[in-house]
Amino acid sequence: HSMMYAVEYAYENNVIIVACMMNENNSDTYWPAGYEHTIAVGATDTDDTRCNPFFWGGGSNFGTHIDFVAPGNYIWGYHPTSNNNNSWYWGGRSQATPHVVGLISLLIAQNEARTIDDIKLILQETSEDQIGSVEEDLEGWDMYYGFGRINAYKALSYEINGDLNNDGGLSILDLVILANMIL
Q: Are the CB atoms for 84 and 139 separated by under 8 Å?
């Protein structure tokens, strides 16, 4: 129960928790992804289908608590034993979740006054729907893709109440430059 209380405390204090759905290719609920006030993320492959399997096996979990998906297979990075060998790739929901965290960070940089509910609304309204397999990626929310694959450009361009809700924060161009520096 302490994890549940921690998630609720974070939500009440406008701290966003983004959690992985797991790599077991099933609909079992894992925590903290299963809590109402987290953002639960599944993984897509290079062709936008749900990773099933990843290049190493397994598969992206699904279920009634999924919110979004993001790229999570063949993500290039450093070799696990060398910080100067970048000829290695990774796969799993641990590669998908940072994409969502990065986008949320940019949305907050755009306007620090945004709440968790604002962020979730922006991601829901701007995620790409029906881009995966027709058997799983149904119109609207579904248990395999949630609201869809995140789309950074659409999210950063989203208007709330007639304006970009930018409030003097970073422009979209600034955010694109920042994102490229991070990646």
A: no
**How does pLDDT run across 31-57, given as a tens digit for each residue?**
999 999 999 999 999 999 999 999 999
> Do 96 and 70 form a contact (C-beta atoms < 8 A)?
yes
Instruction: Give phi and psi for 4, each to the nearest 5.
Output: -60, -45
Amino acid at 79: H
Q: What is the pLDDT of residue 183?
A: 46
Q: How far apart are CA 128 and CA 115, in angstroms?
A: 22
| List of residues 6+ apart from 57 with CB closer than 8 A | none
pLDDT at 167 over 90: no
**pLDDT tier, 177 (very low <50, low <70, confident <90, very high otherwise):** low
38 in Cβ contact with 19 (< 8 Å): yes
**pTM, to two decimals:** 0.86
Question: What span, in angstroms and rounded, lies between the C-alpha atoms of 120 and 108?
Answer: 12
Sign of CA dihedral 112, 115, 120, 121: negative
Q: Is 24 helix (H, G, I), strand (E, B) or coil?
A: strand
Whole-number Å distance between alpha carbons of 166 and 112: 9
Q: How far, CA to CA in Å, does 176 sit from each of 81, 102, 109, 128? A: 31, 12, 12, 19
